[in-house]
Specification:
CATH superfamily: Vaccinia Virus protein VP39
Strand order of the largest sheet: 3-2-1-4-5-7-6
Structural class: alpha/beta
Number of strands: 7
Radius of gyration: 17 Å
Distance between the termini: 33 Å
Bound molecules: S-adenosylmethionine
CATH architecture: 3-Layer(aba) Sandwich
Length: 225
């Protein structure tokens, strides 16, 4: 199946990064299972220091099919500004930046967020290698601080995080244009962790309509109406 990106150099880099992430996934799943079984991690919305340390160097990249879907959504929206909630090594960010480049957007069109300095460093190296660094404004630190200032209107948001999904959405929502899409990963498999997020999404006063697209783990598509 040909990639919608139609950029062989970028696709080669992304294939390498997806393979790197997949190789770490088994260890991550085993870690979660062990912590849940021994009862030492019951609330996925509150990672303890041990869990934070375990994930500090893990990519946990958005899967290729979901990433390509985000690329196409951004093209369909003719997106000029997007926000990414959770960047890690920047895999999904590269799809978003490619879409905005292909839409003719300006420099810094993708606002990306990462609190782990080593991950941010790796992400920047990937952005340079892809030739997409100019399109990405990577904000390092806790996004509850770094997203206090956002230039709108925002056309698309990727939420690839669960522990701070609600505060992130609350910061971005005032900047969403009518018709903007918020895509949120793993809303079925991490349902409990998204409880307060869905309270916000389903509150009629927030003018959002939503459905779960049946990608693996559930991929929420929410539209500002
Ligand atoms: C699932 S990963 C993102 C993967 C990325 N979208 C990709 O496809 O490569 C979530 C990331 O969010 C970061 N993160 C967690 N809490 C954060 C916070 N409060 N502020 C900023 N980044 C945070 C984590 O360090 C982690 O790298």
């Amino acid at each position: 199946m040909p990639s919608p990106l139609q950029d062989p150099k970028l696709e080669a880099l992304l294939d390498r990064l997806h393979a790197q992430s997949a190789a770490q996934e088994e260890a991550a799943n085993a870690y979660f299972q062990k912590r849940v079984e021994e009862g030492s991690l019951t609330d996925m919305t509150k990672f303890d220091d041990e869990a934070l340390a375990f994930f500090a160097d893990k990519m946990v990249a958005l899967e290729k099919d979901k990433s390509e879907y985000c690329y196409l959504l951004c093209r369909a929206l003719r997106a000029q500004r997007v926000v990414e909630i959770g960047t890690s090594f920047g895999v999904s960010t590269l799809y978003l930046a490619a879409a905005l480049r292909d839409n003719g957007a300006q420099a810094g069109a993708v606002t990306a967020t990462e609190m782990e300095p080593e991950k941010a460093k790796a992400a920047r190296a990937n952005f340079e290698e892809a030739g997409l660094a100019d399109y990405i404004d990577l904000r390092e630190g806790d996004l509850r601080e770094t997203l206090k200032e956002i230039d709108g209107p925002i056309d698309f948001v990727l939420v690839d995080i669960w522990n701070v999904a609600r505060p992130a959405l609350e910061l971005v929502a005032p900047h969403l244009r009518t018709g903007a899409i918020v895509a949120t990963d793993n809303t079925s498999s991490f349902g409990d962790a998204y409880k307060d997020y869905f309270e916000y999404v389903n509150d009629p006063k927030n003018d959002l309509r939503t459905m779960t697209v049946p990608f693996d783990g559930g991929f929420e598509l929410t539209v500002r109406v």
